[in-house]
Design goal:
The relative contact order is 0.11. It is built from nine helices and six strands, in the order E-H-E-H-E-H-E-H-E-H-E-H-H-H-H. A six-stranded parallel beta sheet has the order 2-1-3-4-5-6, with helices on both faces. Helix 6 packs across helix 8 and helix 7 packs across helix 8. The N and C termini lie far apart (about 40 Å). The protein has two domains: about 140 residues, 3-Layer(aba) Sandwich (Rossmann fold), CATH 3.40.50.2300; about 60 residues, Winged helix-like DNA-binding domain superfamily/Winged helix DNA-binding domain (Arc Repressor Mutant, subunit A, Orthogonal Bundle). Helix 3 links the parallel strand 3 and strand 4. The model has no long low-confidence stretch (mean pLDDT about 85). The protein is α/β, with parallel strands linked by helices.
């Protein structure tokens, strides 16, 4: 049976190219895809993928947060992060979030397919251009590890310049609940404003350059 794959990437042209590449392989199949995390989550119960290929930069919630959520809610699904971000810190955080592999969009088609197959087989994969020492730091904790899953979603939306009302509408919660999450985030991260959170995100390379 072909390996069942879900794709999460907001760049439609890239996703279409990757889909065509995968569908040309007799041992691989696409069972779900989406441009943002919440869109994909709605499909995963029925799709039951064995591998989720996830970008780091996504609208709303980051790919690191999505990786953590996928691994938590669908532990049988392994995650391959496929991204343009070659900074070792991104790879460290992806593995810490539960990813099995970290590949780069600059790699060849055969390398990306190999990464998917490695992850499907339960083998850890790291792009050759990233120092293997990042694997030694997968247990490293950042301040963001103190946040709950929902707080991390709110954090990502704050950093994306969303208002409390926008965040409430996007997550389907009340503005009051958003304010409660904001207070908890600020307390845990030692922040006093949205600007402080944006600076922290920049320091952790969470904002694309």
């Amino acid at each position: 049976m072909p390996v069942r794959i879900a794709l999460l990437d907001d760049h439609v042209l890239f996703r279409e190219g990757l889909r065509a590449l995968i569908l040309a392989q007799p041992d691989l199949a696409i069972v779900a895809e989406g441009s943002e995390a919440r869109e994909l989550y709605a499909l995963l119960d029925a799709a039951a993928p064995q591998v989720a290929v996830v970008d780091v930069s996504l609208p709303g919630s980051s790919g690191i947060s999505a990786t953590q959520e996928i691994v938590r809610r669908w532990p049988e699904c392994r995650v391959l992060v496929l991204t343009m971000h070659a900074a070792p810190d991104h790879a460290v955080r992806a593995f810490a979030a539960g990813a099995t592999g970290y590949a780069l969009k600059e790699q060849s088609a055969s390398e990306v397919l190999g990464a998917i197959r490695d992850v499907a087989a339960g083998r850890r994969y790291l792009a050759p251009s990233i120092p293997p020492t990042v694997l030694d730091g997968t247990g490293a904790r950042t301040l963001l590890d103190e946040l709950t899953g929902r707080e991390r979603e709110v954090f990502d939306l704050i950093v994306g310049a969303r208002s409390n009302r926008d965040i409430a509408a996007y997550l389907g919660i009340s503005v009051k609940t958003v304010e409660t999450h904001r207070a908890a985030i600020n307390r845990k991260l030692g922040a006093h404003s949205s600007a402080d959170l944006v600076r922290l995100a920049a320091r952790l390379s969470l904002i694309p350059g």
